[in-house]
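can u do me a favor
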């Protein structure tokens, strides 16, 4: 690494894990002599909400050549120190007790942080090299802790790392604790799966599956991989789930039960979803970390950056995450169709898809997607979920119309070659024009409907030439053939209570005057319990009416509720090859062996 003589140096002291405090020091040799500014990001790439990380900073002090100098706060996340011609040492505490992948966490069992939560950026020094030292405090348990990060280790100082610039410093999260580290290679590139604690599992199997997923993706975009090494930094928690992408690593949270046990012959749904999460975050190493919307490459992390393209970055990534599992041979075709039918059902069961377009969903993420409430299913459609279906439809359409000579893979490769590799931001109209150029098709009508319209896509029709039959049924169709009634309520069941979480637009519950937050008490005089509520609401005759008693903010009321027949919003997919070519087209799409099974 070509280091200038004076990198910006950061020290993180782990002195008070019980207080969840990181003690941070920044040493800057050449501050702005007129008064150096320091600024902390307000949001983190991959999670589009202003989170105001600065709220967890306190006790800031500055020394100029070892003499205390005043600090002035300019706005919620910017500080200016008094003019200083010599070395500045800025120190402060960061409180970290956030259990997500987005911020920072420290206790006596483990530690994790994103640089966006810990490191104030000395304005004007964004492009300088950085050095980070992590210093363990005195507590005996800290002495056995290890550190995992994809920052470059310092050649001669332990627990010290280097970054080429501020962006790299804050894009390499750090995991600390009594770690379990498993290593494997994908196309010759070193990879690591790191867990924050010792856990039981068949990690040889996990690494073998991850190797297939990672190798497939590297080859999809074309070797060599855009990083020299990669790490899945994983916190394992009883109730956790989540992931955040970075340039050469992912921060993940999963459950202990997500890992297969040694000797376990099958692939559980939990494990499949863990592999899907890894596949998703890994795909982002290309799609969003390097192939970036122009809006992000120009903007800063202190205010909102608007783009209509999040469906490209999250939706297409969500399409490929599971697709890569089947193409790399980690899951079967049946398992993939099961995942796909669940994704389709989620979109069909969201009335908000007729209210918000994908372009609007992307643009408004800052005020809508990350601030869900009881009205969200009626008002919004997720750019992840519908975005993945648009990617599916686009892929199938290109394959069919080009007689299987082109696919979405070719569009993604071109996106990588023309935008990702040369670090050129993707403009708002660029994805659509590139897809047309690569496929040679006029896709204007498709994009107008899919991205700027709210009608459903003709997915059943698009899946047919691939030998897949799509059917929509009632959600409880399998319960009882005669009694499947619909109310349009989504419920939250606790130990004793059943509370309405959402009421769907134009549903029987909405027409009856039931609302989110109502606690259900009785249906036709029969007491509602978590165990019997599904029977009470779904085993009725369509068009029959029941009296529903409920509490709203502590007051009892009753309303007549007329049940409807369940609308067909639950999707099932089955293989039904009508011709030999259906099978071969599906085999090409899903990367199956092209020998038709007997
Ligand atoms: Zn994502």
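np, heres the sequence
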């Amino acid at each position: 690494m070509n280091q200038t003589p004076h990198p910006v140096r950061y020290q993180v002291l782990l002195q008070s894990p019980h207080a969840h405090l990181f003690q941070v020091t920044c040493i800057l040799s050449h501050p702005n002599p007129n008064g150096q500014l320091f600024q902390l990001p307000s949001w983190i790439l991959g999670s589009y909400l202003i989170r105001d990380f600065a709220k967890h900073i306190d006790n800031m002090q500055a020394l100029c050549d070892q003499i205390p100098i005043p600090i002035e706060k300019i706005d919620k996340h910017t500080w200016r120190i008094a003019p200083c011609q010599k070395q500045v040492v800025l120190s402060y505490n960061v409180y970290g007790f956030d259990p997500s992948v987005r911020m920072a966490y420290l206790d006596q069992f483990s530690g994790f942080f994103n640089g966006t939560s810990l490191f104030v950026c000395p304005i004007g020094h964004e492009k300088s090299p950085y050095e980070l030292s992590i210093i363990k405090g005195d507590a005996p348990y800290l002495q056995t802790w290890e550190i995992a990060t994809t920052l470059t280790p310092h050649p001669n100082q332990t627990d010290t790392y280097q970054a080429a610039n501020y962006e790299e410093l804050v894009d390499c999260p750090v995991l600390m604790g009594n770690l379990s580290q498993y290593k494997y290679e994908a196309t010759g590139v070193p990879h690591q799966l790191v867990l924050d604690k010792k856990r039981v599992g068949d990690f040889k199997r996990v690494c073998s599956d991850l190797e297939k997923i990672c190798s497939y993706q590297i080859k999809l975009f074309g070797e060599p991989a855009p990083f020299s090494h990669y790490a899945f930094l994983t916190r394992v928690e009883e109730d956790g789930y989540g992931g955040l992408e970075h340039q050469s690593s992912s921060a993940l949270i999963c459950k202990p039960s997500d890992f297969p046990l040694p000797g376990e012959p099958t692939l559980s749904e939990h494990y499949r979803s863990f592999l899907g999460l890894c596949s998703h975050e890994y795909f982002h190493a290309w799609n969003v970390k390097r192939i970036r919307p122009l809006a992000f490459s120009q903007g800063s992390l202190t205010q909102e950056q608007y783009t209509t393209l999040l469906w490209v970055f999250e939706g297409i990534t969500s399409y490929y995450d599971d697709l890569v599992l089947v193409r790399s041979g980690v899951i079967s075709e049946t398992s993939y169709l099961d995942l796909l039918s669940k994704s389709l059902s989620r979109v069909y069961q969201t009335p908000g898809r007729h209210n918000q377009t994908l372009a609007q969903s992307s643009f408004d993420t800052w005020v809508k997607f990350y601030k869900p409430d009881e009205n969200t299913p009626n008002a919004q459609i997720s750019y992840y979920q519908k975005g993945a279906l648009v990617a599916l439809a686009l892929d199938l359409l290109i394959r069919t119309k080009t007689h299987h000579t082109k696919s979405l893979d070719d569009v993604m490769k071109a996106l990588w070659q023309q935008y990702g590799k040369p670090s050129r931001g993707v403009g708002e109209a660029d994805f659509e024009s590139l897809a047309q150029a690569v496929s040679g098709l006029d896709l204007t009508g498709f994009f107008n409907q899919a991205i700027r319209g709210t009608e459903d896509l003709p997915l059943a029709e698009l899946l047919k030439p691939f030998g897949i039959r799509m059917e929509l049924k009632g959600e409880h169709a399998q319960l009882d053939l005669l009694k499947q009634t619909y109310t349009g309520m989504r419920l939250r069941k606790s130990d004793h209570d059943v509370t309405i979480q959402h009421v769907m637009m134009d549903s029987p519950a909405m027409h009856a005057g039931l609302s989110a937050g109502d606690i259900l008490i009785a249906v036709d005089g029969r007491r509602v319990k978590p165990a019997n509520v599904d029977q009470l609401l779904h085993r009725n005759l369509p068009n029959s009416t029941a009296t529903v008693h409920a509490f709203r903010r502590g007051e009892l009321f009753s309303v007549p509720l007329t049940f409807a027949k369940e609308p067909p919003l639950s999707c099932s997919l089955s293989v039904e090859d009508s011709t030999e070519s259906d099978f071969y087209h599906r085999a090409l799409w899903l990367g199956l062996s092209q020998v038709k099974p007997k």
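Residues 280, 284, 314, 317 surround zinc ion (CB under 6 Å). hope that helps!!
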